[in-house]
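Hi support team,

I submitted a single chain yesterday and got back a structure, but I'm not sure I'm reading the token output correctly. Could someone confirm the output below corresponds to the sequence I sent? I've pasted both exactly as they appear in my results page.

Thanks,
R.
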Amino acid sequence: MPRVKNRPDSSHVPVVASLPAPQLPQGYEQVTDLTAVKGITPPDAACVALIQAEGAAVRWRDDGVAPTPTVGMRLPAGSELHYDGNMNAVRFIQEGSGAKLNISYYG
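Hi R., thanks for writing in. Yes, this is the structure output for that exact sequence:
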């Protein structure tokens, strides 16, 4: 939705507007072994990743420190993370056995 800034005279004329660019599918990846810390492999044109945890919760970090099964941002099984940060820095590890990630890339 465009952002609208009111003019000083209170009329509702858009002064600043921005619309998100359409995102085109760039690929898919499934990460199945999360017993150790793993990164993802985005295609070159990807700038957004939709990441879904399946089977068990996972932990993630993107600050240069590896997550552990008890430390990091929690992504419960069945939930999705819309990630648009540094995809080369994000790392994942499972909390419990059987976790996997389903990842769709967009750009």
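A quick pointer for reading it: The chain has one domain: 25-106. Let us know if anything else looks off.

Best,
Support desk
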